[in-house]
Amino acid sequence: MDFELTAEQRLIVETVRAFAAQELYPHEDEVERLDEVPAELARSIQGKAIASGLYAANMPAELGGGGLDPLSVVLVERELGRASYALQMLVERPSNILQACHGEQRERYLRPAIRGERHDCVAMTEPGAGSDVRSMTTTAVRRDGDYVINGTKHFISHADVADFVILFAATGEEQTPRGPKKLITTLLVDKGTPGLEVRRGPPCVSNRGYHQCELVFTDCRVPVASRLGEEGRGFELMGQWLGATRLTVAATSTGRARRVLEAATEWAARRRSSASRSAGSRGSGSSSRTWPLSWRRQSC
Questions:
Q1: How far apart are CA 185 and CA 195, in angstroms?
Q2: Which of 21, 85, 123, 197 gets the highest tally of CB atoms within 10 A of its CB?
Q3: Percent composition of the chain: helix, strand, coil (DSSP 3-state, to 5)
Q4: Model's pTM, two decimal places?
Q5: Which CATH number applies to 7-255?
Q6: Residue 292 above 60 pLDDT?
Q7: CA–CA distance from 247 to each of 111, 251, 253 (Å)?
């Protein structure tokens, strides 16, 4: 079996790596210092990503996306993973689950997300349930043609900059041989909907500028037309569309690890070279042991 990348895949890797080096790396120190991505910078990076054809690479070409195959998407994720999360997420890959949109939803959510006009976040995790979807307590109850949502989600990535939420909520239960099982439904909730409050969550050790948030729903009403897929089939829908994200998360981690390894190897090589020069200097009577400023920065 041949595991070599094709010429096209190698070109994808080179293109994305060059974009990250030119457009993302130079701004990492600023984002680290501010714990924010300035709005003007975010617009600039998004615009360049769209112009370069890198935006929405994971979406089908017929919808306006990059149309990459699964392996190529993983390669893109690996190269973007080398950069600060707050910056690389600006080269957006909208949530795959949005491909389940139908009718008016496609023009309101899916296509604007692919064009970079609207941005999504996925709300699944809860304080008392983690990512155990069947144990969630957030509910959506049908009432007068709407769903009334109550509950709390936390650790919701970049919800502070998203325009809408892909929400998983319990809409009832069914009896099974093993006992009652919650029925999960997926809803699309616009930011600014009355009853939805977005709060900044606790700071993380890493990923400065890329924030985890808490979403609090208090009698938040959305129309039935905002339902994504069938009622009670959100768990199956999630498995169908979100399963591929486990590979992309792994690819991102691989990219980050590669960059760290390269930086550590470069630092070690410089130190070894300097140690050799210092030994020569001592032999000639020099007692200087001052390390270059670049070393001190890299070792912090």
A1: 19
A2: 123
A3: 45, 25, 30
A4: 0.87
A5: 2.40.110.10
A6: no
A7: 24, 6, 10
